[in-house]
Design the sequence.
């Protein structure tokens, strides 16, 4: 788990309510994109590959985040198991393990969607699928 206080507080609160909560370290700053998306996809794969050991249901993994983490959670949710967005080769230590999440929670992104609406830009509907996470 990250040492950042907000991540600790959120994960501790979720754990107290009976959820398994994990804070993912992903790349930030210049040069982070697009490498931070596989960071998050591989975090999902790791949890799924180790579900029995971690005592969690591999079919009930969700993504959540704020700021950059929220954007990445949305991307993981909208692109899960879509071949053109999946890392390949050494970029994935869990080949054949799904990166799909069941749900997405990104409550801090309302400002982002509001700014897109103000600019009259449509969300990237070409990258949402009928089986994307809600």
Sequence:
């Amino acid at each position: 788990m990250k040492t950042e206080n907000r991540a600790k507080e959120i994960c501790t609160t979720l754990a107290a309510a009976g959820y398994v909560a994990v804070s993912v370290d992903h790349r930030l700053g210049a040069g982070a994109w697009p490498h931070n998306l596989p960071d998050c996809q591989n975090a999902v794969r790791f949890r799924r590959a180790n579900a029995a050991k971690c005592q969690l249901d591999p079919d009930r993994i969700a993504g959540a985040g704020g700021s950059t983490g929220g954007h990445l959670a949305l991307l993981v949710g909208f692109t899960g198991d879509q071949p053109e967005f999946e890392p390949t080769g050494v970029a994935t230590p869990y080949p054949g393990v799904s990166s799909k999440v069941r749900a997405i929670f990104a409550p801090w992104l309302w400002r982002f969607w509001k700014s897109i609406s103000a600019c009259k830009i449509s969300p990237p509907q070409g990258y949402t699928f009928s089986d994307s996470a809600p």
The chain is about 40% helix and 5% strand. The mean pLDDT is 78. Residues 78 and 130 are 10 Å apart (CA to CA).
